[in-house]
Each structure stands twice: as C-alpha cells, then as structure tokens.
Design brief:
- The complex is a heterodimer.
- In chain A, 76% of the residues lie in helices and 0% in strands.
- Chain A has 12 helices and no strands.
- By secondary structure, chain A is mainly α.
- By secondary structure, chain B is mainly alpha-helical.
- The relative contact order of chain B is 0.13.
- Chain B contains 15 helices and no strands.
- Chain B has one domain: Orthogonal Bundle (MetI-like fold).
- Helices cover 75% and strands 0% of the residues of chain B.
- The chains are: A mainly alpha, B mainly alpha.
- At the A-B interface, helix 1, helix 3, helix 4, helix 5 and helix 6 of A face helix 2, helix 3, helix 5, helix 6 and helix 7 of B.
C-alpha cells in the first residue's frame, strides 16, 4: 500500500512529537556520563565519575533515602485506604458510592500549590511541617484516588462467586480474601501500588512546601540545585530516577501489559 | 428457618455495615487532611493581615480579599494565569489527540514505543522535565547548538526565560496526561466502525473528524480539565523557564506566604484560585451533560 502525502506528513509529525517527549530526557541522562563538571551534550569524555560523587554526597544520599521512605509510606497508606474503599464500594450503593468516588478524586483536581499551601498552614499549627507524616499524607491525597480507582477496576474483573463459595465452605472472610481474592487480583493491585509509589516519588510542589531541611526529597533537592545553576549531580540523579521509572514501567507492563498500564494509570 | 432468616435479615444488615466500615479510612483521610485543612485555609483568609508575622490569631477581616480585589498586580497575574492556562490546554489537548490517535493506529512495537514514551514522561518528576527543557531549549542548549552548527540560524533563538519557555515547560509537564486520557477512551473505539467508514469511501482525515473525534470527547474533556487545572496552579515551570512577566497565581501565592509572610492575602488568593478552577470544572461537567466518564478516569 502506497502512503499518501498526508500520511507521510502525519508520520513525520508524530516522530517529532515523540522526540519532543523523549529526547530531552535521553539528553539529560547522557549528560550524566561526562567527565567534566560542566553539563554538556554530547558528552565529551565518557566517565562514571559523577555517580561516585553522588554516592559520597550526604545531602543527596539523604534526599534519596527520604524519597524512598516517603514513597513507601505513601504506598502503604494509600493502598490500605484505596483497597478498603474499593472493597466497600464493590456493590455500588447508588448515591453513597458516587458521592464517595467524587470525594476521593477531588484532591486530584486541586492544584498542588494550593494543597501545599493549605497543608503548610494547617500542619504548622501542630508543628508538623517538615515531618515525614506531613509528606506521606499529602502524597496520599493524590495517590489514594488512583489506588482506589485501579483497585475498583481490578475487583470489577474478579468473579465474586468464587469468594462466596469459599465463605460457604467455611473460610473466614479474612482467609477467603487472602487466599482466594488476592491471588487473582495480584497483578492489578501491584499496578495500583506501583502507581502510588511513582506518584510520591515524582511529586514536587507539595514536597517543596512541606519538607524541611532533614526531610527534603530528591525533586526538592534537585530544584534547589537547579535554582543555583546547572549541576552535573542533577543529571546523575535524574538518570537514576529515569532508570528507576523505566524499570517500574517494565515491571508494570509485564504484570498487566502496557495497554492496561497506559489506560488505567 | 433461622439460617434463612440470618441470611436475609441480620446478615444482610451486618454486611451493609461491614461495607460501610470499609469506607471509613477513605473518609478519615479526605476529611482529616483535605477538607479540614481547606476549612482552616478559608478561616485564615478571613483573618486580619499583619505582614511579616503570618496573621492575627482570632481576628476577622476582609483585608485578604480586599487585597485580591484591589491590587492591579494581582489582576494582571490572574489574567495572565488564565490566558496561560487556556493556551497550554489547547496545545496539550490538540497534540494529545493527534498523538493518541497515532498510538491507536500504530501496531506492535510502534504502539508500545509511543505509549511507553507517554507513560515514561507521565512518571518523570517535573523537576527532571524542567531540567531537560533547559538543556534542550536554552540559548546554549542542544537545539540552538544544532541549528547554529548546521547553519540554519545566525543567532540563537530565545526559547526560555520568556512566554515560549513557560509554555514549553508547562506543555511538557501536562502533555502525557492529555495523551493518555484521550488514549484511554480511544482504546474502547470499535475498530469495525473505522473500517466501515473507510470501506464506505471516507479518507483518513474524514474518519478522524467524523468518527473518532466525537467518540473521544470524554477523553478530551479529562485531558483538558487536567491540563487546565495544573496550568492554572503552575508554579515551577513559569518560575524556572519564564521571566518576570510570566508570573502565575501560584508564584504569587508562594511569595506572599513564604517571603512576605502575609498569610491572609495568600489564603484569600488560594481560595479564589480554587473557586476559579472549580467553576471551570463545573461548567465543563455541565457541558458534558450527564454523560459521565469524567469521574471514572
């Protein structure tokens, strides 16, 4: 089949858009492997030197630990809340379920800066600004609607007659849930947890307002460096983050396929 | 028949309560760290201003709103933010539709690549994205370097520290949301409809206009809502890649809160922002009739 000129222009346009999405990120990663202290592309001399510098920088290592801690906390909290809520709305109760879904997604439509400012004023009342707790609950506000809706979709695909059969055969509700329901919905729940983890890992604006000197996450630390000029360590950290995300996306794709990952998330 | 009685009476009631109990954590989270703090912010917006030391505890005043209503600087910033929001939203949705359509048309590894690119961009922290935009589009960046070396340009293009920079940065942040919102709806389109239209003699652009666009309207709505909300609340993009004239409401709010320590003014401005965003959302939802779909995404 011969391609029409319109088709060819369309293909070119898509290639340009794809490049716009991806090339800048690849360029960032490439600058991490240059030996010099300047951020240059293409790299002039290949070196892993800045990765070593990163490992020896207490500030950066601290921010990496903070990010992992906050993301783990957010995953645990938002999964606990999201999965229970998804189980609770399994049999849609009409208006209650609808109102609750609306309430759950509401924080997603409030700009991060507004949530950040709001929680900063609120938490400073209790001297909680700059605490891990503040960061975890703030991130959970955004992660929970996602874990909730991914879990809902997942549970909707499950055949609940199987669980009722287990109950009728004498299993306790907990046992039926852990041994019958969970194995079947594992992939979906894994994706929900992954999404929650990534949402926290990448969130910046709320963290900027809510973190203190000891609880700074990686994006906040990177922002502070960027405001002072281009820093090779930002390239290195960005590369680490990008690789982490690529690995997580691959894990998610293997679990449920890129198609569902792209439409569920 | 006590078992039957239990099954249809007490058990059903207990089951109902159990289901409701499962919703308690969600309610606690959303009320405790969302609704309640929002209420507190609203309260502060009605406190008396004492610039330099947060707010006057226990006082009631309209000074915060007065500031928002009377300052021409605030008006200019709000007007700029709305224009900026519309501009970025239009670009984001237009590109999102085209890209999602291409991903739907592509097959095999090409589709995986296009979707993977959007998901990777979605999952990348905005700070890294902004850093990437600086590296590529600054006067000494990769793009200008390339264009100068090839000889297309005599002088570098000024693509950052101005409106172009702010738009590029913000677009780079919101675009994957638009793409995936549209794609999610597009993936439910019955391929047979497209085939039928093609068989009946419509060309690709016409199929796009008359079959695909009407189908993806809910996806467009979600993409537009996300793009607009995020752009109206934009902070980092305009600050890092705009100039002094690309100040958004978000930049001003943080300045009032953190540098000028004027909490009632900051709170009032934040409240006004929420009202603005939600009015736009409401209008969008009403325009979509009661077709739903928006809340499911």
């Amino acid at each position: 089949m011969r391609e029409s000129p319109v088709g060819r222009v369309f293909r070119l346009l898509i290639a340009v858009l794809f490049a716009f999405l991806i090339l800048p990120l690849i360029i960032v990663a490439a600058t991490a492997f240059d030996a010099s202290g300047a951020v240059v592309f293409p790299p002039e001399a290949f070196s892993l030197r800045w990765f070593g510098v990163l490992l020896e920088s207490p500030d950066w290592m601290r921010s990496i630990a903070n990010s992992l801690l906050v993301a783990t906390g957010t995953t645990v909290l938002s999964m606990a809340v999201g999965v229970t809520a998804a189980l609770g709305t399994r049999r849609p109760d009409g208006s209650v379920g609808k109102a609750l879904t609306a309430l759950a997604v509401l924080p997603l439509f409030v700009p991060g800066i507004v949530i950040g400012v709001t929680l900063l004023t609120f938490f400073s009342r209790f001297d909680l600004q700059g605490s891990y707790l503040a960061l975890v609950v703030a991130h959970s506000l955004w992660a929970t609607p996602l874990t909730f809706s991914v879990s809902q979709t997942t549970f909707a695909r499950f055949d609940w007659a199987i669980q009722e059969a287990a109950l009728d055969l004498g299993a306790s509700p907990t046992r039926a849930f852990l041994e019958v329901v969970v194995p079947d919905v594992r992939a979906g729940l894994l994706v929900a947890a992954l999404v929650a983890f990534v949402v926290s890992l990448q969130e910046f604006v709320m963290a900027l307002f809510l973190s203190g000197p000891d609880t700074r996450t990686v994006p906040v630390q990177a922002w502070n460096s960027l405001r002072q000029g281009l820093d090779p360590l930002v390239s290195v950290v960005s590369t680490v983050l990008l690789v982490a995300v690529v690995v997580l996306v691959i894990v998610g794709s293997v679990a449920v396929g890129i198609e569902r990952l792209a439409t569920d998330a | 028949m006590s078992t039957l009685g239990r099954r249809f009476g007490i058990d059903a009631l207990a089951e109902r309560w159990r289901l409701l109990a499962l919703l308690v954590p969600l309610l606690a989270l959303d009320l405790g760290v969302f609704a309640l703090p929002m209420g507190y912010l609203l309260r502060i917006s009605f406190a008396a201003r004492t610039p330099g030391s947060a707010f006057v505890e226990g006082s009631w005043s309209l000074e915060g709103y007065q500031y928002v209503l009377e300052s021409t600087l605030v008006h200019e910033i709000i007007a700029f933010t709305l224009v900026f929001g519309v501009l970025v939203t239009v670009l984001s949705v237009a590109i999102g539709v085209v890209y999602a359509y291409a991903a739907r048309q592509a097959s095999g590894w090409q589709r995986t690549l296009l979707l993977g690119g959007a998901v990777l961009s979605l999952f990348t922290t905005l700070v890294v994205k902004l850093f990437a935009v600086v590296l590529v589009f600054s006067p000494v960046g990769v793009l200008n370097d390339l264009l100068l070396r090839v000889g297309v340009l005599g002088d570098p293009l000024l693509l950052i520290d101005n409106l172009t920079g702010a738009v590029l940065a913000q677009l780079y942040i919101v675009l994957p949301y638009s793409i995936l919102a549209v794609y999610a709806v597009l993936s439910t389109l019955d391929e047979a409809l497209v085939e039928a239209a093609l068989d009946l003699g419509a060309d690709h652009p016409r199929v796009f206009r008359e079959v695909i666009l009407p189908h993806v309207r809910p996806g467009i709505a979600v993409g537009a809502i996300i793009s607009f909300t995020w752009t109206v609340g934009a902070y980092a993009g305009p600050l890092l890649l705009g100039s002094g004239s690309e100040r958004t409401i978000g930049v001003l709010v943080s300045e009032l809160l953190l540098s000028r320590f004027d909490w009632p003014a900051a709170a009032a401005l934040a409240v006004v922002t929420i009202v603005l965003v939600f009015s736009v959302l409401l209008v969008a939802l009403l325009r979509l009739d009661t077709r739903g779909g928006v809340l499911d995404a």
